[in-house]
Sequence to fold (207 residues):
Amino acid sequence: MLHDHKAHPWHGIDPGDKIPYEVRTFIEIVSTDTVKYEVDKTSGYLSIDRPQKYSNIVPALYGFIPKTYCSHRVAELTNEALKRKDIDGDKDPLDICVLTEKDVTHGDIIAWAIPIGGFRLLDRNQADDKIIAVLKDDLVYSQYKSIHQLPERIVNRLIHYFTTYKDLPTDPNQRMILTDIYDVEVAYDVILRSVKDYNKEIASQVK
Fold:
């Protein structure tokens, strides 16, 4: 069926019928970007979130899984893991980082990805999970089925980015706190919970 308008990246793109094992992702930024782009939730267009003022370069394709939302069900896993009750989701689509050996030159694209694990992060007391995935059929990275199979230097590079990219040199307190690195089965659970959060809290509001 043909459409005469561009689908909204968050609400109008189907994440695929093999979710959570294989997901269609919307890529916002790539490693060559010197500006952090983010989808405007109202219009669906990419907007400039902020210039990258410091040496924070995303080490992979970075975006989100459409028709997901990080709210109570996603945060429940973080509360259980940390034995807390006060953490909520960050009220955004579920972030995903897609590893590939190819040089992708720009964002605002769709990519098929295979989740292999994730990072459990806290951002000012909100759950801000990052799913780690590999590009489907990638010549190099498709061999990895678990985040624990990745070379340590790749994992460390991802950790460094996600735990520093929101920090200011003048701020003595680290904003993003990594609490856990989880394997693929937990990543599946996070993804499915984010779909349920979306269906429960967002889907009915989308026209």
Helices lie at 72-82, 152-164, 184-201. The first helix runs from residue 72 to 82.
